[in-house]
């Protein structure tokens, strides 16, 4: 299968002249909030503009409440030595790093490009957002371009539009360099994807020449197992690539349960330039499921009195499985074939229910505590959201098919419950003011009923403003009416996104931030359904301090996440000041999971996160007691992604009834250790390596509060490592994790 969406990943390279061939633009930038196209001109007086760093958002540098346009300018000399020292002398490239959300690039007052494109469009198209902040901005022009002033002062101006959350040039070091062979000899690592076939893992890499000259040299490919340090030579061949020519290199090697890298080395014959690149292959740590029954998922669930209750017993094992539930409170019934418990409970209280799952291989039992009272969402929600894969191209059929695959792939058997439609379903309002779905969602109540019959729950999306982020109808001035409609449709979950309410709010004061969310909560509480209330306003006003007080069950703490390490690490490892505010019924939400096939619709691609980074992603989110919402196309779930999403011991850390969010207990260099207390008295830790290379780590257990002998269990591999006292040593892969559970002897 070939990718519909091909992302070319350019080679990292080493060359003795690279430092001399690059002008670093890390310092010297000026910034001004607002918008005026004349600010691109060279003769603009920017002496009174503010100095700004390009390594972090403008909000973190004194513009906390500012969304909209901002301009960056820098003055620098472009030396002709750049061109003279290069092997290829035809193109000059300007690299800006990451931009949130949209950018237009000007050189000496002349428009060069926008959002990585050379073509200028209307302002409305330019400010489309749609994930433009994810890729690095790079603009390439001919060295003969008349607006390059060689050996003289040049003015770079960057116009940026931020539609919410963090804004500006926020990651990477801006620079100028010549486009050279390393940009033209391309190994396309996304022309194919890794496939597990028996005991082998396979992938075909495409090598192409995108230059106007012949590229010749030697290409070697090797597979390196990181922990065992075993290396396997796959190919070593001389290649001569004509302009535009493509060659394929299939790679096949034994499946491993450790981090594995495919390394490429190309030595250019004429210049002796050496180009190195690496691809990290997936590796599976989760053991295969047993045919013997096991009951998984949350061990506690909350419901309000006389509200509709729906719970599906998450159980794995050889089918068919029959279920039983002893001790159900009055008003609830169990379907013994499906494991679905439904009904209403009038009397408040705490009910201990013994769940049983039985098949021809055996029987499993577990205790589920049903708490009937004022609080719901006693463990973080788990499910699927349409945004990260389908964006505004979502439709009823995609949602229904995703739900069916939840059943077919067995995700529901591990506690994945919610099927949530994000933005893009609304059409407007009828004569009575009631919200109506667009042509892509003609039978919302029928869709909801279908999900409930499968044992799944149904979520929907709106905004307190007149319009949603995607420009669809919001709930402004119809909050109570919309809440009533959602209940009528059988909605179980509402994501309420700030979006255009920014144009309504008087300011960003706490009362103004709280006002629209209080109003919708009033509407939700008037219905006969428990509707999980997700506040999506990107952490403004320290929402974790007041979100629970206005009825929120979870709240976004950051801007949108992306499927890149910079976004994942910046968001995940910053969840520190909010830890004390998470707990049963109210959770910090660092945004959705970016594993599997994503793309924000309609064109999808496999997550840009490496295998190591995806293990880090899931492990950290579970330690954080974060909501687990899959954002991928579940119809393309491969063995590796299923391995990430169906490890019940990993999920149990997230769903632990204590609901304690992890905190960092050790930071040194690239290594961080995060610790989470668990209900049974044991503790889970994640040893994370934020660096680019593997590192050996010695953990001094007593420094982390562990006294005496402890059994250490590898949570991903579901096996005990041994008993330890004093220290524990391990090696952690680049951007990787060791996810462990420690229990006192």
Can you put this structure into words, describing what you see?
The chain is mostly beta strands and 745 residues long. It folds into five domains: 22-177, Sandwich (Jelly Rolls), CATH 2.60.120; 183-281, Intracellular proteinase inhibitor BsuPI (Immunoglobulin-like); 294-357, Sandwich (Immunoglobulin-like); 383-654, TIM Barrel, CATH 3.20.20.70; 663-744, Sandwich (Immunoglobulin-like). Helices cover 14% and strands 37% of the residues. Strands 38-37-36-35-34-31-30-41 form an eight-stranded parallel β-sheet. A six-stranded antiparallel β-sheet has the order 4-3-5-10-7-8, with no helix packed on it. Helix 10 packs across helix 12. The protein starts with 11 loop residues before the first strand and ends with a strand. Mean pLDDT is 92; it is low at 1-20.
Annotation keywords:
Jelly Rolls, Immunoglobulin-like, eight-stranded parallel β-sheet, 12 helices, 49 strands, about 35% strand, globular
């Amino acid at each position: 299968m070939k990718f519909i969406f091909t992302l070319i990943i350019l080679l990292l390279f080493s060359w003795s002249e690279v430092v001399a061939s690059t002008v670093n633009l890390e310092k010297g930038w000026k910034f001004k909030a607002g918008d005026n196209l004349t600010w691109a001109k060279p003769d603009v007086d920017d002496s009174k503009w503010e100095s700004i760093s390009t390594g972090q958002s403008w909000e973190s540098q004194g513009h906390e409440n500012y969304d909209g346009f901002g301009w960056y300018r820098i003055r620098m000399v472009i030396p002709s030595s750049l061109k003279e020292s290069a092997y290829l002398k035809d193109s000059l490239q300007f690299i800006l790093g990451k931009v949130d959300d949209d950018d237009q690039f000007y050189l000496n007052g002349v428009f060069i490009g926008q959002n990585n494109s050379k073509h200028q469009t209307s302002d409305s198209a330019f400010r489309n957002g749609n994930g433009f902040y994810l890729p690095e901005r790079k603009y390439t022009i001919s060295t003969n371009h008349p607006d390059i002033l060689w050996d003289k002062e040049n003015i770079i101006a960057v116009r940026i539009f931020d539609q919410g959350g963090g804004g500006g040039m926020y990651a990477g070091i801006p620079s100028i360099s010549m486009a050279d062979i390393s940009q033209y000899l391309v190994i396309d690592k996304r022309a194919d994807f890794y496939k597990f076939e028996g005991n082998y893992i396979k992938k075909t890499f495409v090598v192409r020449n995108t230059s106007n000259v012949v590229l010749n040299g030697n290409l070697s490919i090797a597979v390196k197992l990181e922990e065992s340090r075993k290396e396997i030579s796959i190919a070593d061949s001389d290649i001569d690539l004509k302009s535009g020519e493509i060659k394929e290199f299939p790679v096949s090697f034994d499946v491993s349960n450790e981090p594995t890298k495919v390394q490429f080395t190309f030595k250019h014959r004429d210049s002796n330039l050496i180009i190195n690149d690496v691809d990290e292959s997936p590796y599976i740590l989760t053991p295969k499921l047993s045919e013997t029954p096991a009951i998984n998922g949350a061990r506690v669930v909350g419901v309000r009195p006389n509200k509709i209750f729906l719970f599906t017993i998450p159980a794995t094992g050889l089918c068919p499985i029959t279920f039983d539930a002893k001790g159900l409170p009055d008003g609830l019934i169990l379907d013994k074939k499906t494991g679905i418990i439904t009904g209403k409970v009038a009397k408040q209280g705490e009910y201990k229910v013994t769940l049983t799952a039985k098949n021809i291989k055996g029987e499993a039992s577990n205790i589920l505590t049903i708490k009937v009272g004022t609080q719901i969402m006693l463990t973080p929600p788990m499910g699927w959201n349409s945004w990260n894969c389908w964006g505004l191209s979502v439709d009823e059929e995609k949602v229904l098919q995703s739900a069916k695959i939840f059943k077919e792939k067995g995700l529901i058997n591990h506690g994945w419950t919610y099927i949530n439609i994000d933005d893009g379903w609304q059409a407007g309002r009828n004569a009575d003011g009631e919200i109506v779905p667009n042509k892509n969602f003609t039978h919302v109540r029928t869709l909801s009923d279908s999900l409930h019959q499968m044992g799944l729950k149904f979520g929907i999306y709106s905004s307190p403003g007149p319009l949603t982020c995607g420009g669809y109808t919001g709930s402004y001035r119809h909050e109570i009416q919309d809440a009533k409609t959602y209940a009528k449709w059988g909605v179980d979950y509402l994501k309420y996104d700030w979006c255009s309410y920014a144009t309504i709010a008087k300011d960003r004061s706490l009362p103004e931030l709280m006002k629209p969310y209080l109003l919708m909560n009033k509407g939700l509480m008037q219905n006969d359904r428990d509707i999980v209330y997700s506040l999506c306003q990107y952490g403004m006003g320290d929402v974790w301090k007041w979100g629970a007080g206005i009825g929120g069950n979870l709240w976004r703490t950051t801007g949108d996440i992306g499927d890149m390490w910079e976004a994942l690490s910046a968001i995940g490892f910053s969840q520190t000041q909010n830890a004390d505010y998470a707990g049963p019924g109210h959770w910090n939400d660092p945004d959705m999971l970016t594993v599997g096939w994503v793309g924000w619709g309609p064109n999808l691609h496999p997550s840009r996160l490496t295998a190591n980074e995806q293990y880090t992603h899931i492990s950290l989110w579970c330690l954080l007691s974060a909501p687990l919402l899959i954002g991928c196309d579940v119809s393309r779930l491969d063995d590796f992604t299923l391995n990430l999403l169906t490890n019940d011991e990993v999920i149990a850390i997230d769903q632990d009834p204590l609901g304690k969010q992890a905190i960092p207990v050790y930071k040194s260099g690239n290594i961080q250790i995060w610790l989470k207390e668990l209900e049974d008295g044991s503790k889970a830790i994640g040893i994370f390596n934020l660096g680019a290379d593997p590192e050996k780590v010695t953990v001094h257990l007593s420094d982390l509060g562990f006294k005496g002998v402890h059994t250490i269990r590898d949570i991903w591999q579901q096996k005990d490592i041994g008993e330890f006292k004093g220290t524990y040593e391990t090696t952690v892969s680049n951007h990787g994790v060791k996810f462990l559970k420690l229990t006192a002897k």
